[in-house]
Amino acid sequence: MSSKKNKLDQEALAFHASGRPGKLEITATKPLLSQHDLSLAYSPGVAAPCLAIEK
Q1: So where are the chain's domains?
Q2: How distant is the alpha carbon of residue 40 from its chain centre?
Q3: Inter-CA distances, 25 with 6, 14, 22, 33, 38, Å
Q4: Segment 6-24, tens digit of pLDDT
């Protein structure tokens, strides 16, 4: 089993060494190009949708 683990270890090291770093990426689903866009998505703009959900 040591040989199998060693092979897996080597494959894992090669896998993580190639390409872009990291495994996951989070991307915006709405346009966030300006301060106004951020205000709509977060405070104070987020209050209106939250209050609508509360009703």
Answers
A1: 31-55
A2: 20
A3: 29, 20, 8, 19, 20
A4: 999 999 999 989 888 888 9
Please state, in angstroms and rounded to a whole number, the distance separating the CA atoms of residues 32 and 26: 13
Positive or negative, the Cα torsion across 30, 31, 34, 37?
A: negative
Q: Cα–Cα distance between 37 and 31 in angstroms, integer?
A: 7
- Do the beta carbons of residue 32 and residue 41 sit within 8 Å? yes
Tell me the one-letter amino acid at 49.
P
Which pTM was predicted? Answer: 0.47
Each residue's pLDDT tens digit, 23-34? 899 999 999 999
> What's the token pair of residue 21?
């770093």
